[in-house]
Amino acid sequence: MNLLSRLKEIEARCSAIRAESEQEGADLEALASEAKDLQEERTDIIKEMERRNTLNSVMNDGGANVIKDFVPTEERTYTAASPEYREAFFANLLGREMTKEQRAAWVHTTTNTAAVVPTETVNAIWDLISEQHSIIDDVTIYRSGTVMEVIKHTEIAQGKAKKVAENAANEDEKN
Hints:
Blueprint: H1 3-21, H2 28-63, H3 83-94, H4 100-110, H5 119-132
């Protein structure tokens, strides 16, 4: 509670106690006890305010620096999906200057890899390919994040094709 507002409340109650004590039939013992408690609380509040003023004067005289705001700093992690990285990617592609935030996103994301294409851009490319080329619907696309290799045979290492009977294998063919 604010000390000044409590002090004003105590003063107002003390005035009310004075008025009540002058009325006939007032419980003087209860009023005296309440007045005594209020005076003690008032004294404690005044001492507390004096201590705070003393502390503030020491601090303001150069005794120490007081940090007034305890605002936590935001630790930001950038990925290929973040909009800052996407902006940085295209700024780098166009050779433009990057803002401080774009530079942080670019450096954070490309430290251990080459220029990663932003996720939103990759998805847009795949959407365009899927819309324009119907054969893609017949292809299973694995977006596993790993490199998949498909071996393409360009020649047969041993043996040439020859005529064989139906359901019979060529004995000397190796792939």
